Hints:
Aldolase_TIM, TIM Barrel, zinc, alpha/beta, BKACE, eight-stranded parallel beta barrel, 17% strand
Amino acid sequence: MAKQKTIITCAITGAIHTPTMSDALPYTPDDIARQAIEAAEAGASILHLHARRPHDGGVSIEPADFAAFLPRIKQSTDAVINISTGGSLKNTIEERIAPALTFSPEMCSMNMGSMNFSFHPLADRYETFKFDWEKEYIANSDTYIFRNTFADIRHAASQLGPHDIKFEHECYDVGHLYNLKFCMDIGLFKAPIFIQFIFGILGGIGPEIDNLIFMKRTADRLFGKDYRWSVLGAGGAQMSFAATASQMGGNVRVGLEDSLFIRRGQLAVSNAEQVVKIRRIVEDLGCEIATPAEAREILALKGAAKVNF
């Protein structure tokens, strides 16, 4: 039996890192579109997208800010577009799913549990900031609870389900897998589901390979052949976890949302640079990279013709 090809997801900008942390972090529509297209050209078959306020780089979940780049990316690449429903940690689930409801993408993220979600230690790494909002936003993240109750998940699934959107089920800890199994059992999601194992976020499971093996073994037990999976290693865990996941038969996620670096102590110059690096590693280790068409087949997606942008 032929080995399944490896899907590379690239998460272009996210909601954690701020403009001060890296000049490469895109936040204008032009930069988000350009970096997304370049990442696709480098080998990413899925583009995981957040929006930013174009004037100061702040996090945005306004559909209008997504509209400024989504059509341009679709016109320039065949990559699968995956819209975040995470966005700001302070918004309601109705506000967070508004962009996905508006644009009906092939994929969107779905966090599978409430959790402490913090990046406040980053506030002490910088003496000055480019924009006034940044320091307070970072420092106050130790007060955040990222809310994803069962009612929230059910609401999002019921609203987005009619759009035939495939969810990237983001699981930050082993309990999130059991939450997902419960939701499968009551009919909220249909196979094949796509799980993103996430390691290294403060508040979630730590970036140790033993944890990856445990999460994978748990998912095998809970979901059998009904799931596909990928790995996100935050920060310094990015490349090592991606390489390990590819050798275990999984898919990989990179991008400036998850790490600003290309190697220890060296900032990446773009999202595409990270895609090029993980593609080289994965191919050197004997795996083939999935095209967007192959990713659509592996994940049973509805196709780019059925989106609303």
